Amino acid sequence: MQGLIRSAGAWLRADSPVVSSASLACAWPVLPAWSWRQPPHPARCTSTEAEAPEREAPQGEASPRGFLAGGHSVEDFPPSHIRNFSIIAHVDHGKSTLADRLLELTGAINPGAKQYLDKLQVEKERGITVKAQTASLVFKHEGEQYLLNLIDTPGHVDFSYEVSRSLAACQGAILLVDASQGVQAQTVANFWLAFEQDLAIIPVLNKIDHPGAEPARVTAQLAEAFDLDPAAVLAISAKTGAGLDRVLPAVVERVPPPRGDLAAPLRALLFDAYHDEYRGVVCLLAVADGAVGRGDRVTAAAAGQSYDVVEVGLLAPEPVPTPSLRAGQVGYVLAGMKDTRQARVGDTWHAARAPVPAFPGFKPAQSMVFAGIFPVSADGHERLAAAMARLALTDASVAVRRENSNALGAGFRCGFLGLLHLDVFRQRLEQEHGADVLVTAPTVPCRVVLQGGESIELSNPADFPTDVRVEAVWEPTVRATVVTPEEYVGALMQLCTAARGELLDHVVLDPGRTMLKYTLPLAELGGDFYDELKSASSGYASLDYEEGEPRRAPMQRLDILLNGEPVDALARIVHRDRAEPLGRRLCAALAGALPQQQFQVAVQAAAGGRVVARDTIRALRKNVLAKCYGGDVSRKRKLLEKQKEGKKRMRQLGSVEVPTDVFHDLMKVRSR
Ligand SMILES: Nc1nc2c(ncn2[C@@H]2O[C@H](COP(=O)(O)OP(=O)(O)OP(=O)(O)O)[C@@H](O)[C@H]2O)c(=O)[nH]1
């Protein structure tokens, strides 16, 4: 057994440098570790600075210094008394709940908080973390005060870009595992992310209060899968608080302090940035050496821009301005930036005219799915454009460009990190910015090689050439990791094969638990794949993936035609074998969803130069005034008004009027 598990580890490491969904988003910082990430042990860490005294925050006095819980200021914490760590885990294993408890325990927030660090409405509603959040805590251990900087990370694979860059600002990570669910796909991915970055890893079992908890079994899983010492595994319940008192002492004792040199010139990593409506762009910096303070002139090396620092401080978890941020500390900087695109995450900041060696940086987040976004009502473009501009400011990982559709008019083509990211973006457009939007079927980018050798990158099915000969199409793939109880292996292998998957490996993790590794076309992960995976495993299987090599595949454009006119917004790029069945499903769905018109409408699907499916909608003469008997003028006017409003939500596709809801209905049509 041990051999098998070790081979799993070896395979993971040999097969890919970082086994993580993060690399799907191409988010992997080109590390290895920086020098300050492998500091000496605290006991060997020399510090000439004074010990941190305990004192009260000044009352009633406007102080330029920022004070943390217990009245501490940043000067109280030399690098030896700082710990920077992330909480990483599979989705829903309890990261945000643990973060809440740690904030309460250290007095940073009042008891009873629920997902305090999840600030977005969409995060609160869906109970998921989308954006990594930072919080600085003060914790007393064995008579010494420590400044602990905690980063709560998202669990979902789409947002793993956030995890990898958060880890770059840390020296340690709490690897949280649900004691009832055990090791899952993102547990594996996140472990290797932290391991590859040389972080100290603290394994913590959560939910030991859960009736299905099996702490002994999951501890054995962790020990075998990751070669961890079972004695190092902590067991807690973030819900009841059981075992919680052991977590922060473990952080202090096991996570090495940052090795910063306060006397050296400023060298800081910009590891995150977000937009605040009132304060502009808030940059999160991990200061490796030196210090940065209000009024300093700093340069962002890769961006090649210099800025005057307006404010620096710690997030505790609310912003606490401080005179400076010092070596080893993680905090925020306001430098008068208006747009998050100015803040390139992974950039190195230094004092103006005092360049320093740059950090390796991060690869930019790469869009994995694209979709068109259009206003629901024909006159809603301006409102949508304003909403897009505002939201794009806060989410630099979405790629936006203008698009014009014959069917839907002016809109945007946007690139996302995955389907959840797309859905979250849509929800935020609607909830936070009041835009009523219509989203076209998501598509993955592919490369089309034309006769003569010219090759084009496509992110819009409507651009797929039909008038020139296509020599080859290359579609993106992922290397997917599925962790499942043994009894579902057969059903899951069937599912992956149906999704055009190629089995790469099959590893028994422990008796009753298996890890499958597949190459899958990225296009197949859209639609219902995740739901099918869950239903084939009664909800027990988990999935993670990283970017794979592009693969040649017989992909073609599937057009939907209304009375002979192709509707560009309904085109898809599909595998040759899928064109006909999908075409049939789309025609049937469209025929079912379209209201009858005053003439017969032919609904057709065409691929590879031929019609592959057809449906017909019979004619109906509709008269909105038919019910108006007796010449009631005001009633007539009301009905006409109502019809006018309804028409705003209609689009004229050739001769056919289509309610915009139809586009939403068609998105739900299964691709397989
Ligand atoms: N029984 C029990 N439930 C817990 C415990 N900790 C968290 N939960 C529950 O587990 C669910 C997920 O918790 P979260 O803290 O949102 O998980 P997360 O890992 O932050 O989720 P993502 O950010 O979406 O990955 C919530 O319903 C919590 O109330 C625990 O110790 N015991």
UniProtKB/TrEMBL annotation:
The highest taxon in the source lineage is: Eukaryota
Reactions mediated catalytically: GTP + H2O = GDP + phosphate + H(+)
Which residues are recorded as binding GTP? 89-96, 152-156, 206-209
Q: What is its EC number?
A: 3.6.5.n1
PROSITE patterns, sorted: G_TR_1, G_TR_2, PROKAR_LIPOPROTEIN
Pfam families reported in the protein's UniProt record: EFG_C, GTP_EFTU, LepA_C
Indicate whether Cell inner membrane appears among the record's keywords.
no
Database matches in InterPro entries: EF-4, EFG_III/V, EFG_V-like, G_TR_CS, LepA_C_sf, LepA_CTD, LepA_IV, P-loop_NTPase
Q: Which HAMAP family match?
A: LepA
Protein name (Swiss-Prot/TrEMBL): Translation factor GUF1 homolog, mitochondrial
The organism is Auxenochlorella protothecoides (Green microalga)
